[in-house]
Structure formats: structure tokens, C-alpha cells
Amino acid sequence: MGFGPQIKSIMTDEDRRHRRRKQINMWLWIGVVVLIILLFVWLTIADIWGDTDVAACVTPLVF
Fold it and tell me: Which of 5, 9, 10, 48 has the most CB atoms at less than 10 Å from its CB?
């Protein structure tokens, strides 16, 4: 459909697997970074509110 000679891309199954694995690895790292940022935000808010002793809050409810 385009102009000029058509060049076919020759990708083997191994190339496809490697590319897919690389994309999954990238999304995994993005997810890890987002979770670490959320953890720091959560800990910062808990520190500001003075609610850092979670065990002391849960213990009276258990006993």
C-alpha cells in the first residue's frame, strides 16, 4: 500500500518472547516504583498525624 519497496520484518519466536519479556519487565519496575512512592506518602502522612504506633492501636481491639 505504501510507496517504495516493501520490507518484511523477520521476527523469530525468540525475538517476540524477548520483546514481550522486556515490556513486562518495564511495567514491573514502574509498578514497584509507584508502590514505593505510595509507601513513603503513607508513612509521611502517618508521621504528620502522629499515628505511627499501629501495634498499640490494634492490641486493645484484640484483647
Answer: 48
